[in-house]
Amino acid sequence: MRLKIGAGIVLVAALAAIVGPVVTPFDPAAQDLPLRLAGPGGGHLFGLDELGRDVLARVLAGARISFLVGVTVVAVSAAVGTLMGAMAGYFGGLIDDLISRIIDTLMAFPGLLLAIALVAVMGPSLANVLFALTIIGWVGYARLVRGQVLRARELDYVQAARALGAATPRVLFRHVAPAAIPAVVVQATLGMAGAVIGEAALSFLGLGVQPPTPSWGTMLSGGRAHLLDAPHLTLFPGIAMAMLVLGFNFLGDGLRDLLDPKKQLRPAS
Amino acid sequence: MLRFLARRLLLAIPVLLGVATLVFALLHLVPGDPVQAMLGDAASPQSVAELRGRLGLDRPLHLQYAAFVAGAAHGDLGVSLRTNERVTAAIAARLPATVELALAAILVALVIAIPAGVVAAVNAGTGVDHAATTLALVGLSMPNFWLGPLLAIVFSVGLGWFPVSGRGTLAHLVLPAITLGAPLAAVLARMTRASLIDELRELYVTAARARGLPAARVVMKHAFRNSLIPIVTVLGLQVGGVLTGAVITETIFAWPGVGRLLIQSIGFRDYPVVQGCVLFIAMTYVTVNLLTDMTYAYLDPRIRVGDD
Known about the structure:
The structure holds two protein chains of two kinds. By secondary structure, chain A is mostly helical. Chain A has a single domain, classed as MetI-like fold. Chain A has helices at residues 2-23, 55-91, 93-107, 113-122, 126-152, 156-163, 168-176, 181-204, 216-223, 232-259, 261-265. Chain A is elongated. Residues 265-269 of chain A have low confidence and may be disordered. Chain B is 79% helix and 0% strand. Chain B has helices spanning 2-27, 34-39, 45-55, 61-73, 87-122, 127-141, 144-158, 170-200, 203-210, 215-237, 239-252, 258-267, 271-299, 301-307. Chain B starts with a helix and ends with a helix. Chain B has a single domain (87-307), classed as Orthogonal Bundle (MetI-like fold), CATH 1.10.3720.10. The chains are: A mainly alpha, B mainly alpha. At the A-B interface, helix 3, helix 4, helix 8, helix 9 and helix 10 of A face helix 1, helix 6, helix 7, helix 11 and helix 12 of B.
């Protein structure tokens, strides 16, 4: 059930991000200063912001940024993390020690703190946000895949492949790494939620996407000054972000249940 | 147990050194000249050279690194460029506010999560359970930089119950504590539910029920007590989330803590304070994780036996 709801929300959000900015009659950057801070209505479904820009058009344009960040960060993090984790788990020894110490060090920073620090010194920009979120993102995949590979490399069919003289890359990528794919898929889905929140948090703090580019984080940050006179500036970008994150969380939770071998083995009651 | 403690402490040393190295490297990631970035383009070459000397950036890199690590080990994190205040003193002055907020948030989280998790577990598979778990997922999906302003709109602007910013009275603490505690409550409620469901399947619970003990006593006195170990562990591991959340929550509610100091210092390009705050928060996180690990080992002998 959750899987379907999550998939539905993500699909609708993805469609809105792709098609929305094309079909909406308003330019997200176009200003109508006399109507600034006008509430929902009068042709502007979500109202207008502090510069008289259409909030709906900006929410839809912000969805593009969120998807761009989510997909890029998750794709690069998952690729780098899977490769590093597979190498650490398969080869062991010095390679494992080195990669594990890097993972331990990066994991010693709580959540977004390292991303905040990196963007703070490198300067606020979308490229630096992508870099910072990837730096903190890949370690989760690496740790996950390392554990899976450590288990998989001792399995009979992997030993058999080695005994038959299969080359290391073939054993690693054809036989060992696929065992980690279900766990990586779940992690990637939940990672999308994390990346969306991460980008919005950095932008909210003024460290991410810079105005006038619309991002849900910058919109929420701008809305703080108008809690009293224009709460719609806080309401709509927040609802969009929470719905998308909820969609990814539902999807991730549903996939985890679906791919959980314990649940599959449990007899139907 | 002693061997376990010694091993865990030894393992923490390379991690702490790695954290210090990464924080040291941060200043060298500044594009171009970090001193020029701090002072701005209009700064004279003389003042740039003077600040470079003050920060020790005119020395060879390995000497800068040795001085940074030695200073950090002695609690010397340098001097703020903006206020000339020692970084450790600036952090110490704001630490009580952050600790107060973090403890209040943890309290809020426990008050919400434990009853919700227990009710969901006891009613596993029913509508109540689905409602509680869905609510927990919704809580996880509401980032604090949205929840905070929403609470402010309703309870400060709308109802006028609580102040919208600042620190001083208990009323000032309520909204920031809920903002910071809500995501933690969601995580803890999920953990409480999962952990209690596992315990309720154990034979000793069936035996207690068979002896005719009241249901509430079986759940709270027997199963819940045993389910506490993973809950306490998750709480310890979530301190990282609380510390990062505090950075955002303090910014939303103008709460004068270490997190706000960090964000303000980023705005002023006061890199020694940025480095100091990041190092301090990361070190706190590592220490709390270490303590959680040790508590877990103390509570569950299987951990340390397996490790030995």
